[in-house]
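To whoever picks this up:

The parser on our side crashed when reading a file containing two proteins. I've narrowed it down to the boundary between the first structure block and the second sequence. Both blocks are reproduced below exactly, byte for byte. First block:
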Amino acid sequence: MASIAILGYGVVGTGTAELINKNKERFKKITGEELKLSNILVRNIEKHKQKKNSKILTDNFENILKSPVDIIVEVMGGINPAYKYVKKALASKKHVVTANKDLMAEHGKELLDIAHENGVTLNFEASVGGGIPILKPLMECLTVNEIVSIKAILNGTTNFILSKMYSENMSYEDALKIAQDLGFAEANPDSDVLGYDAARKLSILSTIAYDKKINWKDIHIEGITNIDADDFKYAKANGYNIKLLAISRQEDDGIFASVQPVIVDKNSELSKIENELNAIVIKGDAVGDVVFSGKGAGMFPTASAVFGDIADIIQNRNKKSIQFNNKNAKIQTLYNYKADWLIRIKTTTKINTICNLTQNFKNCYLFKNELNPKDEVVAIIKEETENDLNYKLQELIDSNHTEYIKKFLHIK
C-alpha cells in the first residue's frame, strides 16, 4: 500500500484528491499497488469542512511528517511555507511530488540534492507544462539527443489574452478582463502578463535540457502589457500573429534565453495554439522538432501530471532523483542569429526616419502610409541580428524626435 498526503486543498489539491480516489481500483489492477489518501493539509479546517475528504483534513504538518506516509504531494503554490515543508519531507526520507514552478525555479537544485542524499525522489512534472507531459519525455525519451533549442507557449493567461486580441480585435484591457472573469487570470495578473511565470518554467525546462543551471532572473523578460491593437494590425498585414514565446537555444558562447512577444507566421503550429492552451517545441539534433501541446493549467490537467508523478514513484521506488547541474550557464539575452523584425517608430520627423532606415538597412520594407498614422513609421527589416539592429537604430533612439521604438522578432 502507498500512503499519500496532500499539502494544499485548492484547485489542484482538490483535483489530485479526486483522481486518487477515482482511480484506486484501476491503479491496483495495473500495478498491484493500493493507494491510500491519508491526510490533506489545510490552513483552516473549518473552511473546508463541507468538502469531500473532510475526515482526513489536518492543519498540522508535523503530524503528517511523523505518520507512515510514503509520498507527500505539495500543491500549495508559492515559496513559503512550501519550501520549508518540502525540505523537511525530503530530509525525513519522504518522496515528494510538487507542481510548484516558483519553488523549483528558486530552490530546485538544493531540494533535488537533498532528495538524492536521502535516497528519495522529488518529481515535478506539473511545474512546467501543467497537464502536458514534457519533463519525463525530455529526460528519458529524448536522452540520446543533444537539445538544440526550445520554443514554447508556457502561460495560458497571456496566450488567452493575445488570442482574443488577434481573433476578435480586442484591446489588451478588455481581453484581460474576460480572462479574469473566466478564471484564467488572477486578480493581480502581474506574474503572468509581465512574463515571470513563463520565465520560471523556461528556466526549469532549459536547466534539464542543456544540463546547465539557468537562473530565471538572468533570462531576458518582456511581458505583453504594451501590446496594442496596432501591433496586431501590422502583424496581420504581413501574415503574422503575435505570441508570448519562451525561447532558449544553444550557442557557441552560452545559451540564449528569452521570454518576449514575437511574431510568428499565421499558419505555423505555434500560431494555431489558441486561448488557454500551451505548446512546447523541443528540437533535438537527432529527432528534429518534437511538439507537445495541451492544457497548461487547470484542476484536472495539472492533477493528471501530479498523479503521473505519484505513479512513477510507486512503480520505480529505487529510482534516484535527478540532479540539476551546479554549473551556471552563460546567458545571452540578444538574438545573435540573422532574423526578420517588425519595427514601429513613433517620430515627429517621419521623412528623416524613413531616410535613416533605408540608408542603414538594405533589406527594409516600409508599410504603406494608409496603414500607419502620420507620426509613425512601420517596417519589416530582414536578415539582421539583434545586436546589429540595435546598433543601427541607436541614432534614432538617441534622437529627440523619436518617442519610442517597438520591435518584434520573427520566429519561424
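<<boundary where parser fails>>
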Amino acid sequence: WLKVRCPPAPSRCRGGRAPPQAMAEQQQAGQGGQASKDQPELPKPELHVVDMSKAEAEFAVDVAKKGVISLFKNERRSFCEVAQYIKKEFDKNPVVGGGAWHVFVGKHFGAWVTYEAHKLIYFHIGQAGFLIFRHG
C-alpha cells in the first residue's frame, strides 16, 4: 500500500500573494467584491465530463466547493490538502458507494486514467480543476 504525502505548501505563488487570497481577490473583483470573508461566493462549476449519477455529481461538486472555501479560510494550505479532504469524504460517504476513489485538484494538470463505468467527473470551479474517479 502506497501513501503519498502532500509536500509543504509554498507560502507564496507568482505575484507575491498566497494562492487562496489571490483566487479570492480575483473572484471578488469579477463579482464586484460582493463575497464576504466568512463565506466567499464561488463561480458556478463548469462541468466538462460527467460519467456518474446526478446525486454523485452533486456530492462531488458540493465537497469540492467546501474544499475551495477551506482554502480561502486558511483551513487548508494547498490543493493537495483539498484533494486529500475530498478523497476521505468520498471513501466514507454511502452516496458514492465507498471504494477506491482517486482525486486530482489543481490549476494545471494532465491525466490519462482507467476508471470504473459511471464513476468519473471532471470539472472546474474558477481556476481550480477537479478530476475525481473510482478504480479498484
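After patching the parser it read the second block fine. Helices lie at 19-30, 54-72, 79-92. DSSP finds three helices and four strands in the chain.
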